[in-house]
Amino acid sequence: MINYDLKKIKAIVFDVDGVLSAETIQMDDKGEPIRTINIKDGYAIQLAVKHGLHLAIMTGGHNDNIRLRYDYLGVKDVYINCSMKINVWREFLHKYALKEEEIIYVGDDIPDYEVMQHAGCACCPKDACSEIKHISTYVSDVKGGDGVARDILEQVMKAQGKWVLNEKAFGW
């Protein structure tokens, strides 16, 4: 269980590689990564959006397929090609007038470290690097790409009374 007051969470930000997709990826014949997606993550993401949580994707990846996938699920803030995530983090906070303590950031590796130190609640998959685990409030029981988003979003929505309680839960 996440040891944080989840009722005050208004936004959740996810890294992609190693969090929403597995840490090992195949490459296509052009050298582009072929990322995995977790269907249960997808369900939880679209449900969280329907319930008014601000979700964002911040990734160093530059493939537009990332944007297409999360746009389809209703995520309005998909930041690709983020070489310095802290700058995008500040932009995201300003856009929605959020306080850092109202945000969960889910990362797995060193490029996430700086932002995770600012997030009210830092979370990571169980196969995150040791430096990230050390600064995380919550380390999920699942590996990246295996349902980390579902794990975290389900806990947040249950704490806020938004999990499987109305017609929004029964459809895509």
TrEMBL record:
Any Pfam family hit: Hydrolase_3
Q: Which cofactor does it need?
A: Mg(2+)
Question: In which residues is Mg(2+) bound?
Answer: D15, D108
Q: State whether it acts alone or in a complex, and with which partners, per the record.
A: Homotetramer.
Tell me the superkingdom of the source: Bacteria
Which residues participate in substrate binding? D17
Q: Which NCBIfam families match?
A: KdsC-phosphatas
Task: Report the family membership.
Answer: Belongs to the KdsC family.
UniProt keywords (A-Z) are: Hydrolase, Magnesium, Metal-binding
Any coiled-coil regions, as ranges: none
Alphabetical list of InterPro entries matching this protein:
CMP-NeuNAc_synthase (IPR050793), HAD-like_sf (IPR036412), HAD_sf (IPR023214), KdsC_fam (IPR010023)
Q: Recall the GO molecular function terms of this protein's record.
A: hydrolase activity, acting on ester bonds; metal ion binding; N-acylneuraminate cytidylyltransferase activity
The name this protein goes by in its record: 3-deoxy-D-manno-octulosonate 8-phosphate phosphatase
